[in-house]
Amino acid sequence: GHPEIFPLVFTTKTQEIFSCRADEDVTEENCFKLIKKEDIIQDLKTRATVSDFHPVKKVILEYPGEELLVVFDAKFQYGQNFYLVASEEAKENLLKPPETVEEKKDDNEKEEESEEEPLEIQPYKPPVHKPWVSLGSEKEVEEESVKETVTKIKYRISRVRRKFGAPITFTDKNASHVKDSYLECASYQDKSFSIKRLEKDVGIQMVPKLREAITQTTWTYPKNAATQYFPMELSNEEKEESLSSGKLKEFLTSVRLRMEIALQQNEIMNVFFDDWKALTEEESSSGGKPDVYLKAHQSFTDLHYFKDRTISCVCWHPTISGIIAVSAKGRLSYEERVNLSDKLLLQQPVILFWCSFDPIHPQLVLECPEDICCFQFSPSDPSIIAGGCINGQVVLWDVSQHEEKLQNVKPVADETEITAVNMVNASILNKLQCICMSPPLMQVQQSSTEPPLVRCCAVSSIQDSHGKPVTDIHWLPDYSEDNQMDATSENRAETSVQFVTCSPDCSILFWNNPAMKSPSEKSKEDIFGMPLDVPDTSKHLDLCWKPLVKVLICMHSEYKKSSSVPYTLDVPAKQSLYTERSTSSKNVKVLESISTDLLVGTEDGDIVYSDWKVEIDSDSEKQNTQKYTIHTETINTLQRSPFFKDIILSIGGQIFAIWKEGVTNGPILHSSCSAGRYTAGKWSLTRPGVFFIGRDDGNIDIWDLLKKTYEPSQLQNISDSMITFISPWIASPNQHFLAVSDDLGVLHVLEVCQTLSQPSENE
Questions:
Q1: How far, in Å, CA of 401 to CA of 43, rounded?
Q2: What residue spans carry the Acidic residues bias annotation (predicted)?
Q3: How far is CA 373 from each of CA 328, 366, 387, 388, 429, rounded to the nearest angstrom?
Q4: 694-741 residue pLDDT tens
Q5: Are the C-beta atoms of 322 and 409 separated by less than 8 Å?
Q6: I want to staple 741 with a disulfide (CB 3.0 to 4.6 A). Which of 290, 549, 622, 725 is the partner?
Q7: What is the per-residue pLDDT for 684?
């Protein structure tokens, strides 16, 4: 019956804002509070729907007066703790209620009587019952109440009537008469309470419900549609006007100093350093659980040489720290290479040398006749590099004239070093240098030139090379030397002069290094019949360089497509292809006890353990060979452990296996099938029980055999594409790196954590 009254609920926050706290600012006796209309509107703007005045927002905006009356309803007469008066008349009536003449007279008479007569005690009036208003408390009571939902189980215990009140007789027994003074009351089966079980044969036949349904797909008429987007570009006049404007120069001049300071700070201190992670490393060293991870250090790529190509091989320089060589090949099949042979001639296959000080510009470029599948530095002379091509040819390079340049590589500039961390800022820095360049930076930029191009010094003959791509290449040990007389002799010079290659054509070829000859080869004529007065050069070997020895691994007819992937070679015996020659090796010791065993991986996933020393009998030639079938796909990695020469790791398909020479019944350990396909792998150089395996989904499995042998101890994502090669490197005793390449042509250099690089005691 009061349309001008609107009940409201004031929260504690609202009471504090408008100074109308219950029982403090307003009480049951002094229950009125005037609030300015402007303050209420401001509260609606500030707190929006959270404001307690939001339900009566329209009423407040239409109110004609400047102050609104809020009344504290202590007895909840209108259902809430406060109510708002929305009319001026009701406000005036509540603040100043009208009094009649009779009421005034009665008041005057009461005042006079109160002055004359003493105060009378009012009689007690019992409270009047009011209807109960629900505020939602009954729901809470119902939720908190306990209800029995489980049906109770009833038990009935009965006994024969005649046994009620029957006398019970107890007897005494001396405990000492019993053995060990212990009397056991063993349980027994009472036949009177045994339950007889009846067998019942029941047959149940499950028949699925059949339902016939017909679905018709709505056919729509196909329509060709194309959308072309064009970027909004400025014209040449607008570009020149913008670049030559004074505002741009003033802006670049004003921010140049700040940019240089910011770039220097990024180089001095790693702003992304995680202090919490460092604390966990300290805790792990003191006995806590250590962290196993690979930290991104740098990344290398080249948009000119490695565009639309995949990295095939990665090798760290054996002697020069921070130098890494990378080769690439096209992501094409044999049929695609034949169809696109004209376009492939426009792409120059190369091997790039990168330096960790300058991840943007390559330091050296090796020219290649074809795409390189694998290459290796000579262990005794790192300036000699041997590589295998995709067409089966073998190439040799000599970079001795450029070793000084590789050793003296320095950062790009002293003021602002451009590393992998601030590669994003490189473009901004270049613009600053173009407009307001200081003299030292301008000199550094002008001095930068293209990397030198090194041509190959020898290429093998196509007819005498492999018939398929060279899959692996390795230098022979420096303490031995092979010749065409089926003998392994001692190499007194202790320099690696021979290397071996393999290919899917089932052949293994041994090659002499024409650029470095051992003492046994320094005779009146060299292996190609060149006299001594000819200058010592390898240019005459282009397309006529032939292998010294060729060995064919022939299994059965179904293995004619085998891909031999040998890793470590201990100077095996072999069969000669070419005419024998006389050598001045009278004083050279022949090694009889050298091992001629070799481990080979095939395209079919077989592991072949063969003895290459051919025993020639009167009847036939015998070759001892053992075959193991563990992998289901091509073997891509076959590596001996750097700590145990009789332990070999093989990777192919979705599993890996660890072999031990002398154990003929199979591998000593092999994994279960992984979620992804394994594509590359390598042993750790410092921990015997750790190795890294790359997968086709861009992840790397870190295996630590001391912790787990059934699953990798850590799985880390490196790239969005397939991992193609892994190469570890030790920069210092406290800094170890892992080079990982992917199918997109990017080389990632990762820093190995201390847990994976420092071996444990007696590992």
A1: 81
A2: 109-119
A3: 7, 14, 8, 6, 38
A4: 999 999 999 999 888 889 998 999 999 999 999 999 998 889 999 999
A5: yes
A6: 725
A7: 93
Spatial neighbors of 512 by CB under 8 A, at least 6 apart, are 497, 498, 521, 527, 548
H or E element, residue 278: helix 275-285
Residue 338's contacts (CB-CB under 8 Å, 6 or more residues apart) are none
With beta carbons less than 8 A apart as the criterion, state whether 674 and 651 touch: no
Closest CA to 711 of 725, 697, 696, 693: 693
Number of structural domains, the chain?
A: 1
pLDDT digits (tens, 9 = 90+) for 11-64: 888 888 888 888 888 887 888 888 888 888 888 888 888 888 888 888 888 888
> Cα separation of 624 and 539, whole Å?
40
Q: What are phi and psi of 679, to 5 degrees?
A: -120, -20
Instruction: Tell me the per-residue pLDDT of 64-83, one tens digit each, with 9 for 90 and over.
Output: 888 888 888 888 888 888 88
With CA atoms as reference, report the closest residue to 309 among 746, 739, 700, 652: 746
Query: Would you state the structure tokens that stand for residue 414, as one six-digit string?
Result: 């002293």
What are 630-676's pLDDT values in tens digits?
Answer: 898 899 999 999 999 889 999 999 999 999 988 888 899 989 888 88
Residue 364 in domain: no
Indicate the burial class of 1 (C-beta count within 10 angstroms; 0-12, 13-18, 19 or more). exposed
Are 648 and 639 in contact by the 8 Å Cβ rule? The answer is: yes
Contact 505, 559 (CB under 8 A): no
- 8 Å CB contact between 571 and 483: no
Selection from 474, 470, 510, 518 nearest residue 494 by Cα: 518
Provide the whole-model pTM.
Answer: 0.54
> Residue 16 falls within a domain, yes or no?
yes
Phi then psi for residue 177, to 5 deg, are: -75, -15
pLDDT at 492 over 70: no
pLDDT of residue 18: 84
* 78 Rama sector, left if φ>0, alpha if ψ -120 to 50, beta otherwise: alpha
* CB-based burial, 289-300: b 16+ in 10 Å, e otherwise: ebebebeebbeb
Residue 8's CB is within 10 A of a number of other CB atoms, namely 18
Q: Is residue 215 in some structural domain?
A: no
pLDDT digits (tens, 9 = 90+) for 152-172: 888 888 888 888 888 888 888
Q: What is the pLDDT of residues 388-399, one digit of tens each?
A: 999 899 999 999
Three-state secondary-structure class, residue 44:
helix
Does residue 294 contact residue 751 with C-beta atoms inside 8 Å? yes
Q: How far apart are CA 399 and CA 406, in angstroms?
A: 10
- Per-residue pLDDT at 613: 63
Return the axis-axis angle of helices 426-435 and 439-447, rounded to nearest 10°: 110
Within 8 A by CB and 6+ apart from 376, the residues are 315, 385, 386, 387, 473, 474, 475, 499
Cβ neighbours, 10 Å, residue 709: 12
Which run of H or of E encompasses 94? helix 88-95
Range of the domain at 35: 5-95
Cα–Cα distances in angstroms (integers) from residue 225 to residues 92, 229, 330, 762, in the given order = 75, 14, 33, 69
Q: What is the 3-state secondary structure (H, E, C) of 665-730?
A: CCCCEECCCCCCCEEEEEECCCCCCEEEEEECCCEEEEEECCCCCCCCCEEEECCCCCEEEEEEEE
* Euclidean distance between CA atoms 681 and 685, whole angstroms: 13
- Residue 87 inside a domain? The answer is yes
Q: What is the signed CA dihedral for 8, 11, 16, 20, rounded to 10 degrees?
A: 30
Question: Which pair of structure tokens corresponds to residue 429?
Answer: 């820095």
Q: How far does Cα 593 stand from its chain's mean position?
A: 47
Return left, alpha or beta for 199; rule: phi > 0 is left, psi -120 to 50 is alpha, else beta: beta
Sheet holding 597-601, edge to edge: 597-601, 606-611, 625-629
With CA atoms as reference, report the closest residue to 740 among 682, 690, 671.
682
Is the per-residue pLDDT at 581 higher than 80?
no
